[in-house]
Amino acid sequence: MALHSLLLFCLAYVLAAGTPGPGTTAIVARVLGRGSAGLAPFIAGYVVGDLTWFTLAATGLAMLARSAHTLFLAMRYAGAAYLLYLGYRLWTAPTIVVVDVSAPPAERGSQLFLASLSLTLSNPKAMIFYLALLPTVVDLPNLTLAAYLEVALTLSLILCAVLMGYAIVALRARQLFLSSRAQRWLNRSAGTVLAGAAVVVATR
Asked: What's the structural domain count of the chain?
């Protein structure tokens, strides 16, 4: 893949990934409510979701994705429902005296992975980028296997960096909330944000 094309993709993707949306909102809300535990599988779900969209576009299945309206509508509602569930868990979570804010109660990594994966696959912003904007910056009809792997690796690294940046900011903010009352306020605020993200996903 030509260097200028790769750089153009990097610029477009950084802007798309860094723009606040349901995905970044969900990861910030989760980190504020639960710290860094489970962060790796949560981010992995986003990466796999974006790679799935990229593969659909790169292999010429964009038309199929556009036509499978019922399937993607169901995925959107499933992602929204899980966000609502996570928001409810935060609202009802018991407060504890935090000694090590980086080690909250553990959650199943598979659940976190599936939550972020379903959110990415049902995210309107991701759909628009990969099915409408990506073809304007990457020559998909002439994309070779080597170029595909190059873009996929670049995509993964950029997305991990962007999401980790959001997570680090949220972790530093979380350290300010050590009291039981502050935790309760933080959990309920994060739960409300997740519920709001679920509404956005379901209605857009």
From this structure: 1
Q: Which residues contact 193 (CB under 8 A, 6 or more apart)?
A: 25, 28, 29, 87
Neighbours of 18 (CB within 10 A): 16
- Rounded CA-CA distance 166/65 in Å is 29
The residue ranges of the chain whose pLDDT is under 50 are 96-104
Instruction: Answer whether 0.90 is exceeded by the pTM.
Output: no
Sorted by sequence, the CB contacts under 8 Å of residue 179 that are 6+ apart come out as none
Domain that holds residue 87: 3-203
Instruction: Indicate the SS3 state at residue 27.
Output: helix
142 near 4, Cβ under 8 Å? no
Per-residue pLDDT tens digits for 119-145:
888 777 777 778 767 777 788 778 888
Q: Is 31 exposed, middle or buried (0-12, 13-18, 19+ CB in 10 A)?
A: buried
Q: What is the pLDDT of residue 179?
A: 53
